[in-house]
Structures are given as C-alpha cells and as structure tokens.
Amino acid sequence: MLRMHFTDADLARTRMAAEPDPLWEIGLSLARLQTRQGRWAYASWYRDTRQRLTETGLDRMVRTTLLPLFPRAAYYPDFLNPAEAADGLDAGLAAIMATPEERIRREVEHFASITAAPTWTQRLVERDAREDLTDCLRRYYDTAIAPYHERAQARIDAERSVRARALLHGGTDALLRGLGPSIRWQAPVLHVEYPAADCDLHLGGRGLLLVPSYFCWGWPIALADPALPPVLVYPLLHEQAAPTGTAPLAVLLGRTRALVLRATAAGATTGELARAAGISGPAASQHTSALRDAGLITSHRHGPAVLHTLTPLGAALVRAATR
After folding, report:
1. pTM for this model (two decimals)
2. What's the pLDDT score for residue 300?
C-alpha cells in the first residue's frame, strides 16, 4: 500500500495531465507485451503492434533492449520517466540525455539489486549509450504508440471531463474519491493499492500530478524516489472491444452517430467527440447538430469550444441501450 499524505497546499496544487505521457506509455505498453493480464482490452493493439514490429524489423530491438530495461516488475529506473515528457516525446528524450551520471549510476545499481538487469545498463552513464537508447525509444514509440495516440487522447479527454465535473461539484475531495477501485481517499491521505512496496509519501506542499494512462493496467504507479516531483499514473477503465449497448444504438442512429452519443455521456467538446468516433471535426459538428435537433443532447459554448452534454432523453436512451 502506498499512502500519499496531503496538506492543504497539496490539495490546491493537485492537477491532471492533459495528454498521454509518451515515456510512461512506452514503459507501460512494454509491460502489456509481457503479460496476458488485460489482453482483452488491448487485443487489437497487441496484434497490430506485434505485426508492425516484425515488419519493420524492430522486434529484435524490443526483445534485446527494451523489454530487459522495462521488465514487468516492481521497478525500473526513474530517470526513464522524466517530468519533462509532459511536454512531448522530444522533451522527454532530451531530459534522459541530460540526466546527471551520478543519478543514472545510483538508479541502475538499485535496478540491478532487485531484478535481473542486463549488464549493458551500466553503460547508460555514457552519452553514446543513452543516444542509442533514446533512438530505440523513439523508433518504438513511432511504431507502437503513435498509431494509437488519437484513441488514447480521446480516452484521456473523456476522463478529464468526468474528473472536472467531479471537481466542480465537490472540490478536490470529490476528484480524489473517483480515481478508481484501487485508489481510496480518506482525507488527508490517498491510499493506493501498490504491490511494489508498503510506504508513505509526504507531498509536503509540492502537489500531485495525476497521469491517466491508456496502457496502465491493474495498479497505479508512482516514482520510486520520494524526492522527485510526485506523480501518480493510474489506469483508465477499458470497455470491451464491442461496447455493450453500441449495437442497439447503431441500429437506431447509425454506428458513428451512436458512438458520438455515447461519448457525450461524460460531457465532451466537438473535438473530443471527433477523436472518440474517429471522424473529422466538421463531421462531428454535423452529428451533434442532428442529435441536438432530436432532443438528445444540448450544446453550450465555453470560450473557443462547444461543450455537448446529454439531455434527460438522451441519457435515458443510452441507459436503456446498455441494459
């Protein structure tokens, strides 16, 4: 169990990532390649990615370099998940290159003390070795993560919409209470199911960055070093590949319009609906116009964006279709 202790300042500084963190998604997707746990949720990704890795000749690189460095274990070096990656893959890889040698040496030694770390990881203190590694990470990202970016972004947009609504209605307490079955908020402590260790983390006014992850499965993850900026990476809830209730709605509305209606359930902008349904922005606007004319959704402008929500009739239709 990981216990995160909040002060009033931490509650005020709790925030949520707006986009998938590319380096966390790399590490967690590599875990998905090493276990059958949750395979149903990633079946199409697993199949397509294995095929692309084989076709591009990257499967050997993944086996010999990335999987040993990112084992499905309790720990891999924290410097591989720099905070700078919140600004994109390039920023994250640059931060890996700029990591002080002493920190790399310390984290690699800790890594080797708890798992069968390959001997070449000791060379990561050398710039050339890190350049080779960041090249591997970029090639893997382009092959395995980038093709699913829009899907992951749509899921995170929906998650942020739900958490924002909780925050507006009940404050940070409500936001922290709704993070999932493996996370329990009992003020002022956030209790996180954490098989890696039993420990306490005092945030000390630094706040907490919540990072919803498409490829995280099972338990949330935090950085091992308590001196680093506090982060909690937690899993998004996944639906079956053929979501319950889509078929009846598709018969009534058409498949794409049914997807748009379901995606509106948590409140979504036109851009978010476009990503969720895999369509263009203008096409999403046409579908929302039709759903609005039918009395199933309402639309309100918030600054430059238009937020769509279900009407009581639309909510009743979605609920009836999912029974």
Report:
1. 0.74
2. 83
